[in-house]
Amino acid sequence: MTDHTRSTDHTDEAPRTGSPSPAPRWTTRPETAADRAAVHAVNAAAFPTPDEADLVDALRADPEAWLPELSYVAEAPDGSVAAYALLTRCHVGDAPALALAPVATLPRYQRQGAGQAVIRAVLDAARLRGEALVLVLGHPEYYPRFGFAPASRHGIRPGFEVPDEAMTALVLDDSVPVPSGLIRYPAAFGV
Ligand SMILES: CC(C)(COP(=O)(O)OP(=O)(O)OC[C@H]1O[C@@H](n2cnc3c(N)ncnc32)[C@H](O)[C@@H]1OP(=O)(O)O)[C@@H](O)C(=O)NCCC(=O)NCCS
User: What residues does the N-acetyltransferase domain cover (predicted)?
Assistant: First the structure.
């Protein structure tokens, strides 16, 4: 049976320059129970502390936040988990939205397209579910390439101090009015 959740559509291939080692291809798919240890390991390796790896485990235990089909991995060519991206349920005021966090690529696979592949894949999965809005707090140079723009343009604000350009929003469904107000994160974020 064909597994329609698996995708290689989000490959960022290097130009063909005659190099003997072509860029790896990234297969993206939702995580399975068998991936949990690898997902923890990718987050633990990508960030300076285990906090993000522990955050994922705490979110997985929160049925109000966790959306199993929006926890995504990118596989390296050998089938191991190379990168990870997670969308969980948050709210802007009372309106449902999604928080993108964390995003992580194993250090040995960084800057080879795995992060972009897994982010594009999880955003597509959210769009297919009919989700309307995604928020991310992160590197202001990284997320605009996916269409994220300052959340403040929509009157969306976090309940903590952060540089304006670091809190960004992506509207997935233009037909839904974009809510404004305070972002309410799942409890596991501790904010
Ligand atoms: C950020 C991260 C997920 C990017 O994944 P990746 O697989 O290395 O990234 P990709 O290969 O898909 O994309 C590379 C691009 O991202 C940019 N990029 C990578 N890390 C970046 C960073 N920390 N800040 C800004 N840009 C970054 C690169 O400059 C590159 O841009 P270019 O295509 O214009 O040259 C990865 O570097 C990582 O795990 N970092 C540590 C954990 C982290 O900071 N997570 C994000 C929290 S917001």
Answer: 26-177
